[in-house]
Amino acid sequence: MTFTDTPQAPGPVAGDRRRWFALAIVMTAAFMDLVDVTIVNIAIPSIQRDEGATFSQIQWITAGYALAFAAGLVTGGRLGDIHGRKRVFLIGIGGFTLASALCGLAVNPEMLVASRILQGAMAALMVPQVLSIVHATFPAHERGKVFGLFGAIVGLGAVSGPLLGALLTEWNLFGLEWRPIFLINLPVGIAGLLLGSRFITESKAPRALKLDLVGVALVTLGLLMLLYPLTRGRELGWPLWGYVSMAGALVVFAALVAYERRKSARDGSPLIELSLFKVKSFAAGIAVQTVFGIGLGIFFLVWTLYMQIGLGWSALRAGLTGVPFSIAVSVAAGMSVQLLVPRYGRKVLQAGALVMAAGVLIYIWEAGRYGQSIASWQMALPLVVMGVGMGLIVAPLTDAVLSEVPREHAGSASGLINTVQQMGNALGLGLVSVVFFGVIDERVESAGAGPAAFADGFQHALGWVAAVMGVIFLLMFALPKRPAQHVEGAEEAPAAVGKEPELVS
Question: So where does this one cross the membrane (predicted)?
């Protein structure tokens, strides 16, 4: 989530009870977004089976959402500054609800992919306003309690999303199969829209920056030129135009940097504040967030396909198998922020990367040793180890990255952190076609073994994830040894509280 500038409205009043209704509404919206991301992947095999979706379409059902979300995050925050956070939030939650209905009513995979892209774009309008509305609604002495509640919501979404997705898929309500995972958003979204229009107080930034539509267009174009060939290349036989497109993406990103530099000098309102990259810890942190997003994007989609298609497990069994992971993430995240980081600093995050890599390596060993007969309880050990490692990283990472950023740029920096994490996630989902499906194709062609090929692909993909964790460990040496809390800047730009990466898929 992004924080934006200080609201123009008068300071929040502690005695106004309406603020708690507003909090419940925006937190419900945040929960809906978190659950929507985690709920979908568990139902992906069912969607693939019932709709006859290709593997590239499966990737785009998840990657399309992440791409649209990433491309629109900063713009969504700016729109809230300019036109009012309440107004943009209501537009976002209304559009998200409509897009959810279109997903649930999709008549073919193409419509579902398009609806997911729209859903991601609407989430980009809705999500950045949540913590900004909290900042505008609650006085400083109450925000610690509120942010604690937000952390609990993140943990609850991580645990409940996969289980809810598994149950709704297994129950096959009214013969709708996987569709209720999207349609469940309708009553929640409509209630949020009606109650939000009544209880949320409007706020704007006193000096809102202009929209950088050219920057958004260049970012989106560059990512599409990179991701589309990655997801379709395997099916199309890796044509020449795909390599040209991926190389052209680098040119587009170079043009983006040049344009943002000129725009910053011209009107001071670029999409990307390039001066932030002069701060070593921030530049390294952006790299960590991007690479971490790639690793998560690869793992969660591959993990779901491995359990449900490769091992033939039901959605419910796959969802229950992931519970130890979710619990481990939540517990380790709480310990990391409250006990470990204040005492040991950066070493906690680096330990998290190594612990997560160890869990991945254990998983690779188990998948090879037990093959098709592997049981859920045997997966518990590597999942708990991975969850502990991830929990040690995700909670304190944003503060570590922002600790040396000038206070006046905290809002822009927070938005950029969350944007690149989502972009990394989309890139990881695109790479699944190479590190997972490519291995499956080779295995099937050489041995003709269907389900067993998924185990080989899973091990190969996890090898990449382990390598990613090693890269993250090295990049973290550039983070401050003792991340400082942004206490002084909390009033103007409490950006250190951002949206955590999607924990479970």
Answer: 20-44, 56-76, 88-107, 113-134, 146-168, 180-199, 211-228, 240-260, 281-306, 318-341, 348-365, 377-402, 423-440, 460-479
Average pLDDT over residues 17-33: 82
Q: What is each CA distance from 98 to 57, 58, 248, 353, 363, in whole angstroms?
A: 21, 21, 35, 39, 39
Q: How far apart are CA 341 and CA 486, in angstroms?
A: 15
Nearest Cα residue to 416 out of 260, 186, 189, 259: 260
Output the six-digit token pair for 254: 């170079």
CATH 1.25.40.10 fits 275-482, yes or no: no
**What pLDDT is stored for residue 472 in this prediction?**
94
Identical topology for domains 16-202 and 275-482: yes
Domain parsing of the chain, residue ranges: 16-202, 213-270, 275-482
Instruction: Find the DSSP H helices in 403-485.
Output: 410-432, 438-447, 450-475
Question: Rounded to a whole number, what is the distance in angstroms from the first to the last CA of the chain?
Answer: 19
Tokens representing residue 96 in the block: 């998200």
The three-class DSSP label of residue 328 is: helix
> In the predicted model, is pLDDT for residue 443 greater than 80?
no
478: amino acid identity, one letter: A
Q: How far apart are CA 185 and CA 101, in angstroms?
A: 8
Contact indicator for 494, 486 with CB cutoff of 8 Å: yes
Q: How far, CA to CA in Å, does 1 sit from each of 103, 125, 422?
A: 24, 11, 11
Task: Measure the CA–CA gap between 28 and 371, rounded to whole angstroms.
Answer: 41
pLDDT in tens, 120-139: 999 989 888 877 777 777 77
Question: Do the beta carbons of residue 171 and residue 55 sit within 8 Å?
Answer: no
Residue among 354, 305, 357, 303 nearest 503 (CA): 303
Count the residues in the chain: 505
Helices 18-51 & 140-171 angle (0-180, nearest 10): 30
Q: Which residues contact 42 (CB under 8 A, 6 or more apart)?
A: 161, 162, 165, 166, 169, 304, 315, 318, 319, 322, 505
Indicate if the alpha-carbon torsion angle 161, 163, 166, 167 is positive or negative.
Answer: negative
One-letter amino acid of 365: W
Residues 6 or more apart whose Cβ sits within 8 Å of residue 121? 68, 69, 71, 72, 95
8-state DSSP, 274: G
pLDDT tens profile 255-276: 999 998 888 888 767 777 788 8
> For residues 198 and 4, what is the distance between their CA atoms, to the nearest angstrom?
23
Q: Which residue has the tokens 């005492």?
A: 343
CATH classification of 16-202, choosing from 3.60.150.10, 3.30.300.30, 3.40.50.10300, 1.20.1250.20? 1.20.1250.20
Cα 460–chain centre separation: 23
